[in-house]
Amino acid sequence: MEKRRLGSQGLVVSAQGLGCMGMSEFYGATDDNESIATIHRALELGVNFLDTADMYGPHKNEELVGRAIAGRRQDVVLATKFGIVRTGDPAYRGLRGDPAYVREACEASLRRLGTDHIDLYYLHRADPKVPIEDTVGAMAELVAEGKVRFLGLSEVAPETLRRAQATAPISALQSEWSLWTRGLEDEVLPTARELGIGIVPYSPLGRGFFSDHFSRPEDLSGDFRRALPRFQGENFQHNFEIVERLRAFAAEKGVTAAQLALAWVHSRGDDVVPIPGTKRRRYLEENVAAVDIKLDADDLRRIEEAAPKDAFVGDRYPSMAYLRGVTPPKTS
């Protein structure tokens, strides 16, 4: 597996990571044994960059990842996130970025993960009540103490990114990016590159829309995607027609639409490390194979023709306020 550098502080990871969120929540039924086997298979294939967060589960995903890497910590570049607060109320999402909470959250994550350090520690969402300088300053203290090696941010605006980088070195920005979601290309991506910050796209497979796992919204019973506008009604049908065009081209190349979409993300640059999520070994192996797919100029042209920028319709979340941790999706 090829390695890529994120940022300029020395963080080196596999060219593709593994998003672990769905192993514990959001995407239907879970199976801890298969999830742990998937993590182990990822390590065998050279995928050493594992991504989790304290709000997944909540908390259960960090515990699961901790069990999976027990005795193999040296083989893993471990990333987790804090800042979105959940309680016993499944509908609640809060935000905290105050310095006291930064430390509290980190200590809790270390316990759940069963480790004495986190390789890449992200602020999951910025707290509008707390200056980013205060949050990142507290994160930098964790680096000085050896509890965290590198710092990251998730889903922040360009100005926030600049202010954070002026406070402490930021190695990675995690944001949604795929053929399905390209909003960061206009301002966020150029800013990150100007500042020397690596890009970690989450949901590079359009939350599974590029897979062949379903063909209608009803196939997603008990899945949080049922609440997402892009997966509903006319939006779903419109978006599905675009995926069908990608599938036709993918078939010509002898790959799946998911592999084609993931190869497109990989083609965006050597500072890009996508983290497709899966909880099953067979899909992991399919995703890893996409690393070796090389797209030439004609391939990229045909992909853009099949799925132009902004072609997909519907908001990413039921309310875009959810990006600030305010309004959660409801499952059905």
Question: How would you describe the overall organization of this protein?
Answer:
- By secondary structure, this protein is α/β, with parallel strands linked by helices.
- Helices cover 36% and strands 14% of the residues.
- The strands form three sheets. It has a seven-stranded parallel beta sheet with strand order 3-4-5-8-9-10-11. A two-stranded antiparallel sheet has the order 1-2. A two-stranded antiparallel sheet has the order 6-7.
- Strand 10, helix 6 (188-194) and strand 11 (198-202) form a beta-alpha-beta unit.
- The model is unreliable at 320-332 (pLDDT under 50).
Low-confidence stretches: 320-332
Strand neighbour order, sheet with most strands: 3-4-5-8-9-10-11
The end-to-end distance, rounded to whole angstroms, is 39 Å
Helix/strand order, N-terminal first: EEEHEHEEEHEHEHEHEHHHH
Cα radius of gyration in angstroms: 19 Å
Tell me what portion of residues adopts beta-strand conformation: 5-15%
SS-derived structural category: alpha/beta
Report the strand count: 11
Please tally the helical runs, counting DSSP H or I stretches of 4 or more residues: 10
Question: For the report, how would you describe the main beta sheet?
Answer: 7 strands, parallel
Q: Summarize model confidence as the mean pLDDT.
A: 92
Shape: globular
Assign a percent range to the helix content: 25-40%
